[in-house]
Amino acid sequence: xxxxxxxxxxxxxxxxxxxxxxxxxxxxxxxxxxxxxxxxxxxxxxxxxxxxxxxxxxxxxxxxxxxxxxxxxxxxxxxxxxxxxxxxxxxxxxxxxxxxxxxxxxxxxxxxxxxxxxxxxxxxxxxxxxxxxxxxxxxxxxxxxxxxxxxxxxxxxxxxxxxxxxxxxxxxxxxxxxxxxxxxxxxxxxxxxxxxxxxxxxxxxxxxxxxxxxxxxxxxxxxxxxxxxxxxxxxxxxxxxxxxxxxxxxxxxxxxxxxxxxxxxxxxxxxxxxxxxxxxxxxxxxxxxxxxxxxxxxxxxxxxxxxxxxxxxxxxxxxxxxxxxxxxxxxxxxxxxxxxxxxxxxxxxxxxxxxxxxxxxxxxxxxxxxxxxxxxxxxxxxxxxxxxxxxxxxxxxxxxxxxxxxxxxxxxxxxxxxx
Length: 419
What we know:
By secondary structure, this protein is an alpha/beta fold. It has a domain at 84-110 and 212-393: Rossmann fold (3-Layer(aba) Sandwich), CATH 3.40.50.1100. It has 16 helices and 13 strands. It has helices at residues 39-45, 48-52, 88-94, 114-127, 139-151, 165-173, 185-199, 210-216, 218-226, 243-258, 277-283, 311-320, 330-344, 350-364, 386-393, 403-413, and strands spanning 3-8, 14-15, 33-37, 84-86, 98-103, 132-135, 155-160, 177-181, 202-203, 234-238, 266-272, 324-328, 373-378. The strands form three sheets. A six-stranded mixed beta sheet has the order 4-5-13-10-11-12, with helices on both faces. Helix 3 (88-94) packs across helix 13. The termini are far apart. The model has no long low-confidence stretch (mean pLDDT 96).
């Protein structure tokens, strides 16, 4: 393991990894920590060629670039290795030179959050921890519940009672202890922190645990390798707590420090208009560390956050890559679900579909140019929120079991005959 120290994103104080479990003791919860590496030693130990020779298709093919001891066991579920598709019809629709979509809804529990949970569970097992916990609007909770179940590790999940039924059902099916918090995500987050402090449970809370980002950065590694280390000009992703966009940034920065990629892509973070705290502080050139909470409300529950927990690093990721934040209305997010499905073949939940709306907004605002090569990172599967999909999918056509009835529909829709 090539980790050297942990560094606060606010005050830049450094800590030995054995001395701090979560956030900076000086800066509190806003002081999320970066995991630093000995890049010189890493560059001597691993190369793109050694990665290519690794037969493991999952995120663990990048294990040398992750904070996990060599002798640590990993969960059996195949996390990562999700496909990146060329999407020419989507490119034509958006008026862009080239578009790819990376479908992280293909992970075992249906979202990118499996990457973080896989690493957290592996670290918990190695440390002999007996209970893991987290707060989530659904996806991170499902990820932890599923990965913990795969190794028989008890999980206690704090989730807003308003979370989609499908996500709550998934948690219960995995056998997690599910506490339905009568409040929002931020209430659940704070309650999970208090519980972990009182009971000693290992807390996976997004950003608070510095290793969540280290799991999510593997999406950036895969993007680079799948595109033969020629990264896109722009990567677009939805933003709630800010940990995914921070993870992408960390992954690309790691690869650039190793000399494996020529540049770090511009990062465009997409927020729902009703949950746009990072967008607002970035637009005002404010200080994300001291920003007040908002009252978030959006159909995209996975990116609803009153006070984004990784806001400092999320804003930094956009600023340091000359990227941007955009905010989009809920109706544009919902319209993105059938647009992505019909133009790329990928079924995305609302939070993931926000990336499509975000590309359109970024084009309108000049943050993306028509000549740019753009990748949309789709973070969750559409089956996570069927009710939202049904609102915009349209209706089927009832017919009697009679070919004449089919003919009437065919004619009304203008469908061709091929005989």
